């Protein structure tokens, strides 16, 4: 199956919106104490590390993506064929908010508390998506009111 950038962007949007919505986080703000080296391996290997059975959503050469759920919560787990493909996916997805745990050629997307818990096992770096909650009132920074969002 040939996966195009628009298809990957659509998957990223769906993942971010399904798990985090357009609003802010209500998760755990505590710093994670000891972070292990970032895990490596297949999607199935990473899922096994965090004790979830992946529900595959996309299985292509460029990206493999699954919905996972474990004791820490529900999250999206994706693996990528290239570092560039991963970075393009993350950059597109971050426009829709969310919390991203990023390792080498993999990413987990979920609520803050879930991402922090996964980090204790998988390692990686946490990245935050754009918070659009300030735009919900319809007021611009110049005090003008705009319709739409």
UniProtKB/TrEMBL annotation:
Residues 125-149 are annotated as: Disordered. Keywords: Signal. Residues 1-25 form the signal peptide. Residues 129-138 have a biased composition (Basic and acidic residues). This is Lipoprotein. The lineage of its organism: Bacteria, Bacillati, Actinomycetota, Actinomycetes, Kitasatosporales.
């Amino acid at each position: 199956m040939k996966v195009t950038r628009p298809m990957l962007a659509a998957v990223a949007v769906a993942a971010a919106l399904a798990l985090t919505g357009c609003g802010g986080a209500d998760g755990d703000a505590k710093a994670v104490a000891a972070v292990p080296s970032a895990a490596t391996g297949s999607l199935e290997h990473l899922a096994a590390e965090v004790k979830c059975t992946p529900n595959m959503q996309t299985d292509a050469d460029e990206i493999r993506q699954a919905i996972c759920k474990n004791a820490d919560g529900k999250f999206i787990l994706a693996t990528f064929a290239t570092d560039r493909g991963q970075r393009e996916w993350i950059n597109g997805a971050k426009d829709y908010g969310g919390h991203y745990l990023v390792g080498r050629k993999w990413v987990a997307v979920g609520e803050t508390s879930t991402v922090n818990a996964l980090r204790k096992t998988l390692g990686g770096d946490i990245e935050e998506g754009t918070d659009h909650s300030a735009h919900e009132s319809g007021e611009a920074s110049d005090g003008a009111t705009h319709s739409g969002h």
